[in-house]
Amino acid sequence: MNIQDNALEDLFRAIPDSHINLLFRNEGNLEIKHSLHSMIKKLPGLENTDIGIEIYTYGKNIYKKIRETTEDRIKLEIILDMVNYIETNYDLYQGIKKEKFMEMKVFDSSEGNVWKYVFTDENIVLESVLYKYNSFEERTVICCSVQSGCPVGCQFCGTGANFLKNIDADTIVYQIAQVLKDKGIEDINSRCEKFQIMFMSMGEPFLNFDNVKEAIIRLNRLYPNAQLLVSTIGVKDDKVFKDFIDLSVRIDKIGLQFSIHKSNDEERDILIPYKKKYNLREIRDRAIAWRIATGRQVYFNYCVDESNAREEDIENLKNLFSPVFSNFTFSVICEADETMKDKACQNINVIRAFEQSFMDDGYNTRIFNPAGQDDIGGGCGQLFKVQDFLKNKNKKEV
């Protein structure tokens, strides 16, 4: 079957133009209209792909259904189903295209429950990490990258301040799809009790927010049961943060975590030297705003060692963050230097003593000690393979 150029676009433009324009006079239906028009813009170029032919056949059937339907409510339901169907197929098509030009390597942890995925082409490198908790059916976690490299320059992170580029939404979605495909994890929407997608591998989500936002929307459509967890240093941009609150209200699977790691701004500015970021009080205020808007809990990630587990740190944090809205993740510090990975600070006793002080005052806490950190660099900020790629790239450019 061959489809003429622009036939897909012409077919789907005919549906709203001929039959349902009147439906869009209702302001409540504007989001459906926006989604429909966004979808239509993606159709050119798909005409003679397998997915394009499938969409064309589907569209002709939809066109017939709408002509035969007299109730506006049913017409809208048909249109919404159509948007979801075609957007999902478009996402799958983009994944197929990415697979053709990105190389993927997989590194298995000796622990048997963690896998690192490294995606490269000539210009960029990405890392994703897959975690299995007991079984993929019980809990599956994928941490994906939102940038290649990172401009933030956290002192403990393997990327340093090496930033290559923002990646598009297609590439973010592609990472998730490829990891699931590689492990043969099928029907995850129905078979997995707890599926979490975390935007926490490499890059700052709020410095690539337009693409992260689009990826979240598409991942929610592909995996409607997945929790979509965003971690940020707190980039100082109230417009973007307001947009994120609106998105979080719209999609109730979104979670928020702030990476703070120090109990005062002076030390935090040294550890996280990126200038345009909220201070700790501003982070607290925006966390409260997000909590009020969504009704969901905010988490604060705090990597613990002897330098930030003092009594004054405990006092500073408790004065800033109330147990009413604050949940703490106390994390081990994973060594970013691969030659010293066995010397990572994993003083669990220090972390547990620190945690206990918060538990005694009614805080909700958890300790994060990631698997895979000692052999494949599966922990936060380790990024061994990214560091290798950046070194080799720099040598070629010299």
Descriptive report:
It is a single chain. The protein has 398 residues and is an alpha/beta fold. The chain folds into 2 domains: 7-100; 103-397, TIM Barrel (Alpha-Beta Barrel), CATH 3.20.20. It is 45% helix and 18% strand. The protein has 13 helices and 12 strands. The strands form 2 sheets. A 10-stranded mixed beta sheet has the order 1-2-3-4-7-8-9-10-11-12. Strand 2 (114-120) and strand 3 form a beta hairpin. The termini are far apart.
How is this structure best summarized?
With 398 residues, this protein is α/β, with parallel strands linked by helices. The protein is built from 13 helices and twelve strands.
Give the key terms:
398 residues; TIM Barrel; single chain; 45% helix; ten-stranded mixed β-sheet; alpha/beta
Shape category: globular
What is the mean predicted local confidence, pLDDT? 80
**What is the alpha-carbon Rg in Å?**
23 Å
Biggest sheet descriptor: 10 strands, mixed
Strand content: 15-25%
Helical residue percent? 40-55%
CATH architecture of the largest domain: Alpha-Beta Barrel
What is the count of structural domains?
Answer: 2
